[in-house]
UniProtKB/TrEMBL annotation:
Protein family membership: Belongs to the DegT/DnrJ/EryC1 family.
InterPro entries: DegT/StrS_aminotransferase (IPR000653), PyrdxlP-dep_Trfase (IPR015424), PyrdxlP-dep_Trfase_major (IPR015421), PyrdxlP-dep_Trfase_small (IPR015422)
Designated name of the protein: Glutamine--scyllo-inositol transaminase
UniProt KW Lyase keyword: no
Amino acid sequence: MTDTETNPETDGGIDTGTGTESGYDDDSRGGATPVPIADPQLSADARERVTAILEDGRLADGPEVRAFEEEFATYCGTEKGVATSNGTTALHAALEAVGLDDGDAVITSPFSFVASANAIRLAGGTPVFADIDPETYTLDPADVRRILTDRDDVVGLLPVHLYGLPADMSALCTIADEHDLFVVEDACQAHGAKVDGDRVGTCGDAACFSFYPTKNMTTGEGGMVVTDRDDVADRAASFVNHGRDVSGTGGYDHVALGHNFRMTSIAAAIGRVQLERLPQFNRARRENAAVYDEELADLPLETPTVPTDRRHVYHQYTVRTDDRDALAATLAERDVGTGIYYETPIHRQPAYETVSTAAAQLPAAERAADEVLSLPVHQGLSAGDRRTVIEAVRDHFTTQ
Ligand SMILES: Cc1ncc(COP(=O)(O)O)c(C=O)c1O
C-alpha cells in the first residue's frame, strides 16, 4: 500500500459498535482499552472556532458555511460545494438537482446504509438494486449492464463508495455515457478516496458526503454535495433553501419547491477545522489498515481488496469470514468494538418490501451480509489499541 499524500493532512450512519464517541482529542482515551469502533477527534481549534461563531451570533446559514463549501470543493477538486444538514439530504438534493423525475428508476447498491436507497425514494424515484462485486463490495458493473438490457426506465446510477473504497467508476461512467444516465456518487463514507489519482466527487455529475460523527471527518451532523456543474450546484443550493432563487438578491423569491436542508454555521466551523486535519486522519487510517493487512494475512479471513486504480481511505476496515458471529463475540469479550455494516441488505429491509427489485436474488450482497465484520481502524487508535485488536483476532483463530 502506498500513500501519495504528502501534506500533513461510523455505519455506516449509526454506530452499532460497542465504542463510545468521546469528543476532544486533548482529553482522549490515552490508548486505554476498550477499543471503540469509532472515536471522532475534535481539537481545541474546533472549540475556539465554535466559540467565535457563538459570539458572532450568525448561527444558521452564513459566511462560515460558504467558506466551508468552497474549501471542501477545493479539497475534492470540484468547482462547487453545497452544504447540507446531513448526507441523506445531500443525496436527496443532488438527485433533485440532476433532474430525477417521479417514477424514474435509479440503479444502486443493496449493500449500503439504507440512506442510499431512501434518498432515491424521497426524491420520487425508484431504486433498482444491482448486485455487488464480491471482492470490493461495491456496485458490480456487469450486473448494472444486465439490468439495463431488461429495463428502459433507468435514468441514473448511484454507486456507493463503501467503507472508503471507491466503486469501479471508470466502468460505471462508461456505462452511464453509453446509456445517457446521470451518476450521483454516494461518497458518504469516502472523504479523500481516489480513483486514478483523482478524488471521488470528480467522476460523476455530483457526489455526496456525510459528516456524521463516525465518518473520516465530522461536523456533528452535516453533508455536502460537490459538483463541476454550475446548473447542478445552483439547483441543489436552491433546493436546500426552500427553492430560493440563488441568482437573486437574497430576498424571498422562491422559484421552486424545496426543503430546509441547510447546514448551520456551528457545523461548518467544526467542518473547516476537521477538513484541515482530514489528510492526517486518512493517513492514520491507512497506516492502521496496512498493519492489519500484514498481521492478519496468514489467518483464515479475507482482508480488504484494493484494486490498483483506487485509493482506499478505510472508513471501515472490513474483514470477511464464515465464522463472523463467533469472531465478533470473541472481540466483544476482549473489549474490542466491532460493527456489521450491513447485516440486512437494503432489499430485505421491511421498508423495501414493496419496492422494485426488493425481492430480487442478489447473491453477492446476501453473502457479504452474512460474513463481513468491521474492526476499529479510526484515527484515534494507538499502537497499543492496534495490538489489542490484532491479538484478539489472532487468538480467536489460533486457539480454536
Ligand atoms: C453510504 C452512506 N450513504 C448515506 C449516508 C447518510 O448520511 P447521514 O447519516 O449523514 O444522513 C450514510 C451515513 O451514514 C452512509 O454511510
